[in-house]
Design brief:
Elements: H1 2-17, E1 26-36, E2 43-52, E3 59-67, E4 73-79, E5 92-96, E6 109-118
Antiparallel strand pairs: 1-2, 2-5, 3-4, 3-6
């Protein structure tokens, strides 16, 4: 029994020692805001590229905050650009979270960041 327990611990030790990916292992590049249309038909595009710099495949959740001129957050939305797929190390996926937002004329600034990381 003792041998079985020790064998199991030695087998799982490399997994436990392997560090998981963190939000800082992902980078958002080329983030752009673009509005098209007018009036009720105005649509936002809040797009960019999410790049995995982690040593293993993982997915990241992107968060976009829409702010007014004073920096107050008016709306905040999150999405998983790769869905339930992992992004390979060094690879990227494009995203556009603009469709999640309802445009407000007070929106003056947008910030984007990685909110969470998961391995599917």
């Amino acid at each position: 029994m003792k041998t079985l327990l020790v064998s199991a611990l030695l087998l799982l030790a490399p997994i436990a020692a392997h560090a998981a990916c963190a939000p800082t292992d992902f980078v958002i590049q080329d983030f752009k805001m673009k509005a098209t249309g007018s009036g009720v038909g105005l649509r936002l595009s809040l797009s960019g590229q999410l790049v995995n710099h982690c040593a293993e495949a993982a997915a990241a959740q992107v968060r976009v905050d829409a702010k007014d001129a004073t920096g107050k957050v008016l709306q905040s939305k999150q999405g998983w650009p790769a869905g339930t797929a992992n992004i390979a190390p060094g690879q990227s996926v494009t995203f556009d979270l603009g469709r999640l937002f309802r445009y407000q004329s007070e929106m003056q600034d947008y910030t984007v960041g990685v909110a969470d990381v998961k391995t599917w």
